[in-house]
Amino acid sequence: GQNIDQPTEMTATEGAIVQINCTYQTSGFNGLFWYQQHAGEAPTFLSYNVLDGLEEKGRFSSFLSRSKGYSYLLLKELQMKDSASYLCAVMPGANNLFFGTGTRLTVIP
Amino acid sequence: DSGVTQTPKHLITATGQRVTLRCSPRSGDLSVYWYQQSLDQGLQFLIQYYNGEERAKGNILERFSAQQFPDLHSELNLSSLELGDSALYFCASSVAPGDLYGYTFGSGTRLTVV
């Protein structure tokens, strides 16, 4: 089976850097994804990692360590609009994404 | 607009009733996925179709069923509704199963069972 752990909530200050951690156990591994979801809206794709290391995309970066079953999403230069839930998801096989319950990030002035 | 269209956006119905949720995938996508998201819960995978055929099943109740039609749109049927079925139901699509560019989600159908 699959299990994903993320912190439930985090708070950070506008302009700062925040790191959202995700640990996972999965029977197979075809990649790890991060999605952003504003309240009541559709999740939107942020990043994908399948090899160990850091993937950078603008203000957002995602890191993966397959041996440790660990990933993090790094958000730099936080803006108020970054207040949202951040969902870590793994693709155990070729058929579907398994999502964690998400981390609700609140950015304060 | 993500390109994935879900209708209706909101649905209020009584316990014991049956509803149908509809999803049109993004142009060119052959795979459709259905997810349920209850209040403060993660996205729970229900079922996946690829080019008209069922590919994977998650924690989908026997009261729920789905299908994908030749034009690739999909419908999720929920019957004998209970209060606990109140949730956001998302449809997502991808070019193929295991698409490494992730899924594109529709804006969801908010179902309220009263």
Q: Distance between the terminal alpha carbons of chain B, to the nearest Å?
A: 30 Å
The biggest sheet of chain A amounts to: 6 strands, mixed
How many beta-strand elements of chain B? 11
Order of helices and strands of chain A: EEEEEEEEEEE
Give average pLDDT of chain A, whole number. Answer: 94
Estimate the strand proportion of chain B: over 45%
How widely separated are the two ends of chain A? Answer: 41 Å
Number of E-type strands of chain A: 11
Class based on secondary structure composition and strand pairing of chain A:
mainly beta
**SS class of chain B:** mainly beta
Q: What is the rounded Rg of chain A? A: 13 Å
Question: Largest protein interface?
Answer: A-B, 25 and 28 residues
Radius of gyration of chain B from CA coordinates? 13 Å
- Which percent range fits the helix content of chain A? under 10%
pLDDT average of chain B, as an integer?
93
So what's the overall shape of chain A?
A: globular
Total helices of chain A: the number is 0
Please tally the helical runs of chain B, counting DSSP H or I stretches of 4 or more residues: 0
